[in-house]
Amino acid sequence: MNEIFMLRALELATLGRGHVSPNPMVGCVIVHGERIIGEGWHQRYGEAHAERNAIFSVRPDDMHLLPESTAYVTLEPCSHYGKQPPCADLLIEKKIGRVICCNDDPNPLVSGRGFNKLRAAGIAVETGVLAPEGRELNARFFTFFEKKRPYIILKWAETTDGFIGAVGGKPVKISGDLSHRLVHRWRSEEDAIMVGTNTARNDNPSLNTRRWPGKNPVRIVIDNQLSLDQNLNLFDGSQPTIVYHQIDNENLADRPNIFRSFVTRSAGPFLNQLLTDLHQRNIQSVLVEGGATLLQSFMDAGLWDEMRVFRSQTMLDKGRFTDAVEAPSVRGTLASREMVGEDELSVYKNSPGG
């Protein structure tokens, strides 16, 4: 029964996707005997955590059952004060009988302290139930703390004959409307979205979530020589934009809508430094929607975690587009494949050695 109730907690946790970062997604189910008497999830960053929502969803007539009940929580209860008080303290205060979790919290502010606090109060603790599923749920959170960088998702659409677009020309529509809407949902679920200089110049993207109800991500563009026109949509001030460049002593006082970062090559590879800077900015995930050059640079460096590739029924006749750009070669392990309208969506995960 433990796995059944934990699956429900994991299901609840996903309801916070796109709303709780930089916190992890967490779900909690409180069970007495084989009956669920309370459940909750972390709904929005800065608001009550899953355990608190679950406990206060218990009916007043059932509150006396908590000392005989089990709390199924997808991640170790927090033990420190942040925007909310420690969940471990609340579980102790309510004298919960037992706590079962998927994973230890990798955040050094917690990292075992929550479990230690519960055990010291006499509460039985069990960990590792559906641990792989718990890590997958919060892959961004674990990557951020364990690898000291954001979780990287590479996304592109390619034609049936293997092209991603045309260089120096107008953008070529490849995937369908349903796929485009799905991409906007993905944008709302990630902290940031990244493009390179050519994509910014040729496509003039807005990189927002206008086709999906959700938050806009932080926009990131790599513009090494600061050559992009400041009238592009990326610089309209509607959402934060970070520009990574290599021009020192640039006067940016007249560009208040842009958070610019100078990244030098002297201390190591450019992408590593860029991702270290994003880590310091507390950005946990990046959706890379750049062109072939930017995508390939992440692949060559092994700095990616997931690929999402649309393959449409469109044919890009290279005879008509002599400068057509070939799509990157997929790598990693196929995790899923499905149809999105008339497009085939394949998701790959980075395997060891990526």
From TrEMBL:
<keyword id="KW-0378">Hydrolase</keyword>
<dbReference type="GO" id="GO:0009231">
    <property type="term" value="P:riboflavin biosynthetic process"/>
</dbReference>
<dbReference type="GO" id="GO:0008270">
    <property type="term" value="F:zinc ion binding"/>
</dbReference>
<feature type="active site" description="Proton donor">
    <location>
        <position position="51"/>
    </location>
</feature>
<keyword id="KW-0686">Riboflavin biosynthesis</keyword>
<comment type="similarity">
    <text>In the C-terminal section; belongs to the HTP reductase family.</text>
</comment>
<dbReference type="GO" id="GO:0008703">
    <property type="term" value="F:5-amino-6-(5-phosphoribosylamino)uracil reductase activity"/>
</dbReference>
<comment type="pathway">
    <text>Cofactor biosynthesis; riboflavin biosynthesis; 5-amino-6-(D-ribitylamino)uracil from GTP: step 2/4.</text>
</comment>
<feature type="binding site">
    <location>
        <position position="199"/>
    </location>
    <ligand>
        <name>NADP(+)</name>
    </ligand>
</feature>
<dbReference type="GO" id="GO:0008835">
    <property type="term" value="F:diaminohydroxyphosphoribosylaminopyrimidine deaminase activity"/>
</dbReference>
<dbReference type="Pfam" id="PF00383">
    <property type="entry name" value="dCMP_cyt_deam_1"/>
</dbReference>
<keyword id="KW-0479">Metal-binding</keyword>
<dbReference type="InterPro" id="IPR016193">
    <property type="entry name" value="Cytidine_deaminase-like"/>
</dbReference>
<dbReference type="Pfam" id="PF01872">
    <property type="entry name" value="RibD_C"/>
</dbReference>
<feature type="binding site">
    <location>
        <position position="78"/>
    </location>
    <ligand>
        <name>Zn(2+)</name>
    </ligand>
</feature>
<keyword id="KW-0560">Oxidoreductase</keyword>
<dbReference type="InterPro" id="IPR002734">
    <property type="entry name" value="RibDG_C"/>
</dbReference>
<protein>
    <recommendedName>
        <fullName>Riboflavin biosynthesis protein RibD</fullName>
        <ecNumber>3.5.4.26</ecNumber>
        <ecNumber>1.1.1.193</ecNumber>
    </recommendedName>
</protein>
<feature type="binding site">
    <location>
        <begin position="291"/>
        <end position="297"/>
    </location>
    <ligand>
        <name>NADP(+)</name>
    </ligand>
</feature>
<feature type="domain" description="CMP/dCMP-type deaminase">
    <location>
        <begin position="1"/>
        <end position="126"/>
    </location>
</feature>
<dbReference type="InterPro" id="IPR002125">
    <property type="entry name" value="CMP_dCMP_dom"/>
</dbReference>
<feature type="binding site">
    <location>
        <position position="210"/>
    </location>
    <ligand>
        <name>substrate</name>
    </ligand>
</feature>
<comment type="function">
    <text>Converts 2,5-diamino-6-(ribosylamino)-4(3h)-pyrimidinone 5'-phosphate into 5-amino-6-(ribosylamino)-2,4(1h,3h)-pyrimidinedione 5'-phosphate.</text>
</comment>
<dbReference type="InterPro" id="IPR016192">
    <property type="entry name" value="APOBEC/CMP_deaminase_Zn-bd"/>
</dbReference>
<feature type="binding site">
    <location>
        <position position="289"/>
    </location>
    <ligand>
        <name>substrate</name>
    </ligand>
</feature>
<feature type="binding site">
    <location>
        <position position="187"/>
    </location>
    <ligand>
        <name>substrate</name>
    </ligand>
</feature>
<keyword id="KW-0862">Zinc</keyword>
<feature type="binding site">
    <location>
        <position position="157"/>
    </location>
    <ligand>
        <name>NADP(+)</name>
    </ligand>
</feature>
<comment type="pathway">
    <text>Cofactor biosynthesis; riboflavin biosynthesis; 5-amino-6-(D-ribitylamino)uracil from GTP: step 3/4.</text>
</comment>
<keyword id="KW-0521">NADP</keyword>
<feature type="binding site">
    <location>
        <position position="207"/>
    </location>
    <ligand>
        <name>substrate</name>
    </ligand>
</feature>
<dbReference type="InterPro" id="IPR024072">
    <property type="entry name" value="DHFR-like_dom_sf"/>
</dbReference>
<dbReference type="InterPro" id="IPR050765">
    <property type="entry name" value="Riboflavin_Biosynth_HTPR"/>
</dbReference>
<feature type="binding site">
    <location>
        <position position="49"/>
    </location>
    <ligand>
        <name>Zn(2+)</name>
    </ligand>
</feature>
<feature type="binding site">
    <location>
        <position position="87"/>
    </location>
    <ligand>
        <name>Zn(2+)</name>
    </ligand>
</feature>
<dbReference type="InterPro" id="IPR004794">
    <property type="entry name" value="Eubact_RibD"/>
</dbReference>
<feature type="binding site">
    <location>
        <position position="203"/>
    </location>
    <ligand>
        <name>substrate</name>
    </ligand>
</feature>
<keyword id="KW-0511">Multifunctional enzyme</keyword>
<comment type="similarity">
    <text>In the N-terminal section; belongs to the cytidine and deoxycytidylate deaminase family.</text>
</comment>
